[in-house]
Design a protein that fits this description.
9 strands; six-stranded parallel sheet; about 280 residues; alpha/beta; about 40% helix; single chain; binds adenosine monophosphate
Length: about 280
């Protein structure tokens, strides 16, 4: 496993391998790895010849009052885990290496960023697509792996790939959960024992939504109201709980195609997101 800091050096390694016909699979992360990340990496290992994992806590996707500085980091532990997964390259650039011209956010995320988490985290998706486009330029992957956990992010990147005609096949992998159903996240480390238990209401709300949608007895709008009423008294602050069309991320009116139930809320001071996709 090679750990590479310099974007130019990584591109050089990759181009050599691509000239030999190797398929490059790429998993972008912000580190502090858990089983969710590992599930993406294992899939990449199965489907590609060369696996590249990036570890980069991207400053441009954090708001001024968000947790960029205290975001959990543990490079030593991450590298050990990645070596055990037989990753070929770890790309761990510096902020200056990724943003040599300063912290501009030069790629626009498009209208999918105007809904769900977008209004709650102004500039977040602009930072995400900017860094992912730059990572794609450096890594030049054939396959890129993302988690359904960040469904909106995955949809926005999917549209960005289309918009720039990038020759990248995107794979969205299922959400890996803790025993109580809580979606794994590097930020779960912020939760106290009590908060971790209380956070179990989020997957419960998603199961409730699924049951209600499958029962076909009430409208999707009514399902949404029920989920909101269930969550509001049980979490510390509800950002949103929505039932939307899985393509447009806007309100699902017709019962057709895939419906996404998406939740963002605070447990204590920690903002958590989760979702479920339901085929209707
Ligand atoms: P992050 O390090 O949080 O930026 O996540 C890196 C990638 O891992 C993203 O594509 C996430 O969607 C994905 N991911 C994070 N948590 C999970 C999880 N619990 N299950 C599956 N994928 C995940």
């Amino acid at each position: 496993m090679k750990v590479v800091k310099s974007p130019g050096a990584l591109t050089e390694h990759i181009l050599k391998l691509k000239r030999k016909g190797k398929r490059v699979g790429f998993v972008p992360t912000m580190g502090f790895l858990h089983e969710g990340h590992l599930s993406l990496i294992r899939r990449a290992r199965k489907e590609s010849d060369v696996v590249v994992v990036s570890i980069f806590v991207n400053p441009t996707q954090f708001g001024p009052k968000e947790d960029f500085k205290r975001y959990p980091r543990n490079a030593k532990r991450d590298l050990k885990m990645l070596a055990a997964e037989k990753v070929d390259f770890v790309f761990a650039p510096t902020v200056r290496g990724m943003y040599p011209g300063g912290l501009q956010k030069c790629v626009k995320p498009g209208p999918l960023a105007d809904v769900l988490c977008g209004p709650k985290r102004p500039g977040h998706f602009r930072g995400v697509v900017t860094v992912v486009k730059r990572l794609f330029d450096i890594v030049q992957p054939d396959l890129a792996y993302f988690g359904q956990k960040d469904f909106q992010q995955a949809r926005i990147i999917e549209e960005m790939i289309k918009r720039f005609h990038l020759p990248i096949q995107m794979k969205v992998c299922p959400i890996v959960r803790e025993k109580n159903g809580l979606a794994m996240s590097s930020r779960n480390v912020y939760l106290s024992q009590d908060e971790r238990i209380r956070a179990g209401v989020i997957p419960e709300a998603l199961s409730l939504a699924k049951r209600l949608i499958r029962s076909k007895t009430i409208s999707l709008k009514q399902v949404e109201s029920k989920v909101v009423s269930f969550l509001k008294p049980r979490v510390d602050k509800l950002n949103y709980a929505k039932v939307v069309d899985a393509i447009s991320l806007r309100h699902a009116i017709r019962r057709k195609g895939s419906v996404l139930v998406a939740i963002a809320c605070f447990i204590g001071r920690t903002r958590l997101i989760d979702n479920i996709l339901i085929r209707v």
